[in-house]
Design brief:
Oligomer: heterodimer
Strand content of chain B: 5-15%
Shape of chain B: globular
Low-confidence stretches of chain B: none
Number of strands of chain A: 5
Shape of chain A: rod-shaped
Number of domains of chain B: 2
CATH superfamily of the largest domain in chain B: Response regulator
Number of helices of chain B: 10
CATH topology of the largest domain in chain B: Rossmann fold
Structural class of chain B: alpha/beta
CATH architecture of the largest domain in chain B: 3-Layer(aba) Sandwich
CATH class of the largest domain in chain B: Alpha Beta
Structural class of chain A: alpha+beta
Order of helices and strands of chain B: EHEHEHEHEHEHHHHH
Distance between the termini of chain B: 24 Å
Number of helices of chain A: 9
Helix content of chain A: over 70%
Number of strands of chain B: 6
Largest sheet of chain A: 5 strands, mixed
Strand order of the largest sheet of chain A: 1-2-3-5-4
Order of helices and strands of chain A: HHHHHHHEHEEHEE
Radius of gyration of chain A: 62 Å
Radius of gyration of chain B: 18 Å
Helix content of chain B: 40-55%
Mean pLDDT of chain A: 84
Largest interface: A-B, 35 and 30 residues
């Protein structure tokens, strides 16, 4: 049983603990993955926008440089050419910075087109460098051709490179999105696995717990049945014990009275006859010898009579319940000075044997208790017969007692007897208020001990 | 003096034979029949018609008290002396109600038995001194415990006289003759006595008289 309990406890502990741990893990893991997905998605978005902005910047710078280069070459005014030249130099610095900036955002896939762009740009600037030293005449002479042959093709090439980079960037976004989708499906997979595990563990736990509970339930039921049966057996045993004891007492009492008592009486008569039959001259001698014998036998007769009454008063069988109770009352009165009043209402002479005995023994025990403990002046005993039951009450005016605290063996014995007759016994007592014992005994029912 | 014819009933052979021998030894006593159980006692009492029946209570077939009741019913003139082991009021009252005039304990001395038979034969009550003493003591104690005045004090001298004579075994007719009263007056006195003492039968009256020590 103890092993069974410990085993159950361990399994339940591990099961519920595991289930809780699994649920906590699933929650924490899910939150972590969600956060990661959110971060990833945000950074993809940000990077895409940033690169787009930088590329646009490069594109517009490329355009602008083309425009400035054309203006420089084709504008006849000196100051305008100088201004364009300055702008071109500023633009070159700016583009270098932008490209360097972009190199930091760059992905490996973008390296090649970006290098191409940078190489083109360098070549473009290198091609442009000598032109910037050109005088007005030279510009006027070969400016247009330079714009047409060098500036425009190089610009086109650079722009197509920028478009290529842009394309790579776009591809990057969709790759990022694909990776995000992968992450999400991985998360979904993990969630499903965790849920399945939780479900499986939960089901196992439920099955185990249900089986244990059912087992415990049936165990409890069988134990309850056992206890009930045992109690019933105990009761019938105790009833049988009471019955056997009573029968034995009666047999002993009868034996003592009929055999021993009668024989002793006969001996007394015989002694008288012996003395009476003796010749007158020796009679006094015989009488002297017989006297102590007679006293001895008389003493024995009294002892036998008292023993007989103690075992089981013959009145109960010869005269009936009420005369036996009255005798018991007088005895109690003689020995303890109690005033005992007995009143009987409609009590039949033909009460069942066990019932008579039960009432008599209960009263006997109660009177003994009163005489011993109650310090009472009087006791009132009422016996009432109704159609289906016999009522008995014993009320004293003694000091009473606290039932909850002291329930002596006497009271338990009474209860046992009454219960053996399927009756009920109630005791009401308060300190200083006396004690009332009420007994209800059903008539016409067989006591359990007979079954 | 004529012989008193006695029927002896006891189921114990040695006892019965001993008693028989004891009574036969007495002058004026004759044991005319012996019975070993109650039924036989009734049959013999009716057949042999003894003047006194000495009968044990505890007997097979029919107990002594029941046998006494039947004998008394059929032949009320038979004097019945109960012989018993039981020194209790319940038995005494039962015996008196059954019509017995004497109640003796079995371990009583020889003289008590002889006195009881003679008293019963003379129509008077007789109880073992031990029984009388016990009844008287119980009665006194009850009076003391209840703290009530003895209702005997309520009786007039004439009623006390009637009570004593009735308890001693006289019939109403005897009283009327001896006291020179009418039968009706005697009956009235008797009824008054019973009412004042809260008694209900002749048996109870005899018991009362014994308790009070009016008769022994």
């Amino acid at each position: 049983m103890r092993l069974f309990q410990r085993q159950s406890r361990t399994v339940l502990f591990i099961g519920f603990g595991g289930l809780l741990a699994l649920m906590v893990f699933a929650g924490v893991d899910g939150l972590r993955v969600l956060r990661r997905m959110q971060d990833r998605s945000g950074s993809i978005q940000r990077e895409f926008l940033e690169r787009g902005r930088v590329l646009n910047q490069i594109r517009s710078d490329v355009y602008l440089s083309g425009t400035y280069a054309r203006d420089y070459l084709l504008d006849p005014g000196r100051s305008a050419a100088d201004r364009s030249k300055t702008e071109l130099r500023r633009l070159r610095r700016e583009m270098d910075a932008t490209l360097a900036n972009y190199a930091q955002l760059m992905r490996p896939e973008e390296r090649e087109p970006l290098e191409g762009l940078r190489r083109n740009l360098n070549e473009y600037w290198q091609a442009l460098d000598p032109v910037l030293l050109w005088g007005a005449d030279q510009r006027r002479g070969s400016g247009y051709a330079f714009v047409r042959d060098v500036v425009i093709p190089r610009r086109r090439a650079m722009l197509s490179l920028a478009d290529e980079i842009d394309e790579v960037n776009r591809r990057q976004v969709s790759t990022g999105n694909a990776r995000l989708t992968d992450l999400f499906s991985e998360f979904r997979y993990r969630l499903i696995v965790t849920l399945m595990l939780t479900l499986a563990l939960g089901s196992l736990l439920a099955v185990f717990a249900t089986r244990r509970i059912l087992a415990l339930e049936s165990q409890t039921t069988s134990q309850y049945t056992e206890v009930t049966e045992a109690r019933g057996q105990l009761r019938s045993l105790s009833a049988r014990l009471v019955k056997t004891q009573e029968e034995e007492r009666r047999a002993l009492s009868r034996e003592l009275h009929d055999e021993v008592g009668q024989s002793l009486s006969a001996i007394l008569v015989g002694l008288s006859n012996l003395v009476g039959a003796t010749p007158a001259e020796v009679r006094s001698l015989v009488e002297r010898e017989a006297a102590p014998l007679r006293r001895l036998v008389e003493g024995n007769v009294r002892t036998v009579r008292n023993l007989t009454l103690l075992l089981r008063p013959s009145m109960l069988d010869d005269l009936g319940l009420i005369p036996a109770l009255e005798w018991q009352g007088r005895e109690a009165s003689r020995h303890s000075g109690l005033r005992v009043d007995i009143s009987a209402e409609a009590v039949s002479d033909e009460l069942p044997e066990e019932l008579k005995t039960c009432v008599y023994r209960v009263v006997q025990e109660a009177l003994t208790n009163v005489a011993r403990h109650a310090e009472a002046q009087s006791v009132r005993i009422v016996v009432q017969q109704e159609t289906a039951r016999l009522l008995l009450s014993i009320q004293d005016d003694g000091r009473g007692f606290d039932i909850a605290r002291s329930k002596g063996l006497g009271l338990l014995g009474m209860e046992e007897r009454v219960r053996g007759m399927t009756g009920s016994l109630h005791v009401r007592s308060e300190t200083g208020m006396g004690t009332l014992i009420s007994v209800v005994l059903p008539l016409r029912t067989h006591p359990r001990g007979n079954e | 003096m004529s012989t008193i014819r006695i029927l002896l009933a006891d189921d114990h052979n040695v006892m019965r034979r001993g008693l028989s021998a004891l009574l036969e030894r007495q002058e004026g006593f004759s044991v005319v029949a012996e019975a070993a159980d109650g039924r036989e006692a009734v049959e013999l009492a009716l057949a042999v018609k003894p003047e006194v029946v000495v009968i044990d209570i505890a007997m097979p077939n029919l107990n002594g008290i029941e046998a006494a009741r039947r004998i008394h019913e059929k032949r009320p003139e038979t004097a019945i002396v109960i012989l018993s082991m039981h020194a209790d009021e319940g038995y005494v009252l039962r015996a008196l109600n059954a019509g017995a005039r004497g109640y003796l304990l079995k371990d009583s001395p020889e003289e008590d038995l002889i006195r009881a038979i003679r008293a019963a034969h003379a129509g008077k009550a007789f109880f073992s001194p031990e029984i009388s003493r016990m009844l008287a003591e119980d009665y006194m104690r009850q009076m003391r415990q209840r703290g009530v005045e003895d209702s005997y004090e309520l009786l007039t001298p004439r009623e006390r006289e009637v009570l004593q004579m009735l308890a001693e075994g006289n019939s109403n007719k005897d009283l009327a003759t001896k006291l020179g009263l009418s039968l009706y007056t005697v009956e009235t006195h008797r009824a008054n006595v019973l009412e004042k003492l809260n008694l209900h039968s002749s048996a109870e009256m005899i018991l009362y008289a014994v308790r009070k020590g009016i008769v022994t």
